[in-house]
Amino acid sequence: MGANTYTPAKHFVSAATIVLNEQNEILLIKGPRRGWEMPGGIVEEGESLKEAAIRETKEEAGIEIEVIKFCGIFQNVQKSICNTLFLAKPVGGELTTSPESIEVGFFPIEQALQMITIDNFRQRIEYCLDNGKHPFYVEF
């Protein structure tokens, strides 16, 4: 392979947070396209995974969080996307919607899992809530 034919790999890395309040309710945002999900998004250049998780939660839901632990990774092999997942707790701010979230709120876990329509989003939450699975690495 000649030097000129090298193409840098295009991988997307995202960070999402499972935010649990003191009532053990989970923070969900309702996006315009995918419905209910946990806050998260693409990690920017020069940003840590943890910083991205904190920033995305603030941008999408209006609240400040403290990251408690790294839970694991879901890798979409076909699309070259690595989704990193963190467990966090709210420490300030007010729940606020954004262009990326038409509704936001804390919901009991059972109810939250029923509200999410995308299967692997539901699976991600279940894995994050199961300490016995940490850290996990799931390919799909």
Short description:
This protein has 140 residues and is α/β, with parallel strands linked by helices.
Question: Which properties best describe this structure?
Answer:
single chain; alpha/beta; Nucleoside Triphosphate Pyrophosphohydrolase; five-stranded mixed β-sheet; three-stranded antiparallel β-sheet; 3 helices; 22% helix
Structure description:
The chain is α/β, with parallel strands linked by helices and 140 residues long. It has a single domain, classed as Nucleoside Triphosphate Pyrophosphohydrolase (Alpha-Beta Complex). It has three helices and eight strands. The strands form two sheets. A five-stranded mixed sheet has the order 4-1-6-5-8, with helices on both faces. Strands 3-2-7 form a three-stranded antiparallel sheet. Strand 2 (25-31) and strand 3 form a beta hairpin. It is globular.
Which sequence of SSEs, written as H and E, runs from N to C?
Answer: EEEEHEEEHHE
User: What's the N-to-C terminus distance?
Assistant: 30 Å
Low-confidence stretches: none
Overall structural class, as computed from helix and strand content, comes to: alpha/beta
The CATH superfamily appears as Nucleoside Triphosphate Pyrophosphohydrolase
Mean pLDDT: 94
**How would you sum up the major sheet?**
5 strands, mixed
**Which bin fits the share of residues in helices?**
10-25%
Strand content: 35-45%
Secondary-structure arrangement, i.e. CATH architecture: Alpha-Beta Complex
Number of strands: 8
Radius of gyration: 16 Å
CATH topological fold name: Nucleoside Triphosphate Pyrophosphohydrolase
Shape: globular
Overall structural domain count: 1
Number of helices: 3
